[in-house]
Design a protein that fits this description.
Layout: E1 12-15, E2 19-22, E3 25-26, H1 27-33, H2 45-54, H3 60-73, H4 78-85, H5 93-104, H6 109-115
Antiparallel strand pairs: 1-2, 2-3
Helix pairs in contact: 2-3
Length: about 120
């Protein structure tokens, strides 16, 4: 489906000449503008997440706030860790991510509320 516009994403666009743009920023732009752990290092994932969620470039403080939130709330159950560790090491990373996210669904607060009819 190259060169056929069939789906529009507000968060990213893939162009054959410029590559991926996230919220209007190319990858080289992001390398220059997103917060980094060390000068001239790679951008922090928290910064890219912030940009994707808000459409605005994050400050160092914004990235640190997300990192703190993830650290405080990102605990996985022993069952979940065991599931992830049992995946074959040669499994593609995106497959691992997909399988792990699907595994987490059973503990989803959203899913429980939806199943109880508490969400429209």
């Amino acid at each position: 489906m190259r060169d056929i516009k069939s789906v529009f994403y507000d968060t990213s666009i893939l162009d054959k000449m410029t590559g991926i743009t996230f919220r209007g920023y190319t990858i080289p732009d992001l390398v220059n503008h997103l917060p980094k752990a060390i000068p001239d290092g790679e951008p922090l994932p928290e910064g890219l997440f912030y940009l994707l969620m808000t459409g605005e470039l994050p400050t160092d403080e914004d990235s640190n706030d997300i990192k703190e939130f993830w650290s405080k709330n990102g605990k996985l159950s022993d069952e979940t860790l065991q599931f992830i560790k049992q995946l074959p090491v040669d499994t593609h990373p995106m497959t691992m991510l997909s399988m792990s996210l699907l595994f987490l669904q059973r503990d989803s607060v959203f899913h429980k509320l939806y199943a109880e009819g508490k969400l429209n």
